[in-house]
Amino acid sequence: MARGLARDHDEKRAALRKGAADYFAQHGYDRASMTGAAKHCGVSKALIYHYYASKEDLLFDILDDHLGALVEVVEAARGEGIRGVIRAVLSAYEDADSEHKLQLDALATLPPERQAPLIAAQRRLVTVMAEAVDAERPGLDADRLRALTMSVYGILNWFYMWHRPGKGLSRAAYADLAADFVIGGLRAV
Amino acid sequence: MARGLARDHDEKRAALRKGAADYFAQHGYDRASMTGAAKHCGVSKALIYHYYASKEDLLFDILDDHLGALVEVVEAARGEGIRGVIRAVLSAYEDADSEHKLQLDALATLPPERQAPLIAAQRRLVTVMAEAVDAERPGLDADRLRALTMSVYGILNWFYMWHRPGKGLSRAAYADLAADFVIGGLRAV
DNA sequence: CACAAAACCGACCGCGCGGTCAAGAGTATT
DNA sequence: AATACTCTTGACCGCGCGGTCGGTTTTGTG
């Protein structure tokens, strides 16, 4: 028998994932070509197809990785209160702006059966946040609990749209401000 | 000299805009083909090109129309407090989900010089909201004012992602809940 | 060392896209 | 009634896309 996968196979795959995620996020998944992504990664297009069977497979892996890490981090913050969850989410988004952006605008381009596991992960994130909201402000009916949970995610998911690293509040400072805002808001409804 | 534009020229153009907006929003601007949009509108592709010079022109007009109406409605709500502004925005989004979605994920595909007037309109929306935030909670430093203003837009802009018409809270009920939440939050920071 | 498979590339392919065009039908103006 | 222009279409075009292929180079293993 002969050689198996290279020792750095997984690292290279991960580098491709990261490079492609940045390129996809910058140009928009649909407009971004595989040729362009390959150039951005400094490799040939054919090499990407050596590591990934299709553009769709590559996208799926990027999103799966990202959401998996997010779920892990958020579940670890369970029980630290809503401030802990908010901090965890915002800190997990750091260095993952591209993946986050992709998740928001390219997930829908996957066929339903490939969306399913990703949507399931999103649902777990929502559930954890809903628990935290419920702990902070018990007694809300289901509709309001859901609406407020989604409003909190609205705040967090919108962050990347207006925040420019190095300008304005730091991520950590914003996390605390957002937590104050959310906690105060929950007290008022 | 002979005939000018048909009497219903503008209505037909508007119908095309609305039909195309729905189609674009449903499939994603980049994936959505002009052939598909034409079929969706029940006309030939060539006819769309009779009314619009290019796919990009069509997109621009959709967004320009939408943002123009939004600015109008929001400026009219100036002085009605932050609750009034929140209500105005959410009510303006009604029947404009497609346009709103397009604005969020296709504006960036326009060349910078065509983005400029649309971004200027967005900035006016932000300014009005910032004034309302400042009126509700005076004395915030610029960074916090901006962060909180954007957080409010995060809540509102995220609404279309999770709300399903006919399920859960009505738009009006949510507008009031969101206003309570925001006002309570501003009091707490 | 021998060698089989992995790692990598440039050239190529079919398809569907945005956009064009020549022509026919319809209609407000003279 | 004649006219000139809008309205509308199906057929067509060039291009760049996702993806493939045949080949060379590199490398772990027996």
Total tally of structural domains of chain A: 1
Can you summarize the main beta sheet of chain A? none
Terminal Cα span of chain A: 68 Å
Question: What is the CATH homologous superfamily assignment of chain A?
Answer: Tetracycline Repressor, domain 2
Helices of chain A, by number, come to 9
What does the overall shape of chain A look like? elongated
Kindly state the mean pLDDT of chain A as a whole number?
A: 96
Strand content bin of chain A: under 5%
CATH class category of chain A: Mainly Alpha
The strand count of chain A comes to: 0
What fold name stands as the CATH topology of chain A? Tetracycline Repressor, domain 2
Quaternary assembly: homodimer
> Greatest chain-chain interface?
A-B, 38 and 37 residues
What would CATH call the architecture of chain A?
Answer: Orthogonal Bundle
Q: Considering DSSP H and I runs of 4 or more, what fraction of the residues of chain A is helical?
A: over 70%
Task: List the secondary-structure elements of chain A in sequence, H or E.
Answer: HHHHHHHHH
